[in-house]
Amino acid sequence: MKPLTNLLFLVSLTVFSQYNYDASEAFPFGQANPEAPKQITDYEAMIGRCNCTSTRINQDGTWTEPESMTWTWKYILNGMAVQDETLKSDGSHSGSIRQYIADSSRWYVHWYSSKTPTTALPTWEGNKKDNGNIVHYKEQKAPNGTDGFFRLTFYDISQAGYKWVGEWVDKTESVVFPTWKIDCIREEN
Known about the structure:
ten-stranded antiparallel beta barrel, mainly beta
């Protein structure tokens, strides 16, 4: 019986060690895995929970009234990736799974939403810039057919919170049309 007990102990240690960096009582939002690419800490200041206001552009060019939302960030996959989830005041949810792929030297962001379920998740890609902003792009034509991107930018990132803007830009990024803005203030981390 003793060899079986030893084997079970070793198996339980192995399983536990596979999740050392997931959410726990001590680290409710997980931790960055030291074996992950160093870019895993690009989102470090956002890990935790923020109270946010979200506003979108109307067809007439005016902005909607701000909508309250909570935006929660955590490390997942044993600290090898980042997940964010939103809960909006209308009860809708959305989120992203963010993985840094060292071979391409960039982040890939896979977005999902309870309002727009899909069989294939849209994907943005990008990086943290020298100015501290995190910028991601997904090819998207303008309503008039002009080639461009939907660009997502996190900026003014600090332990107090951050801001986010979604905007259509042309291929040269000289034409910029913001369509969505979110301002966040830290609740907990």
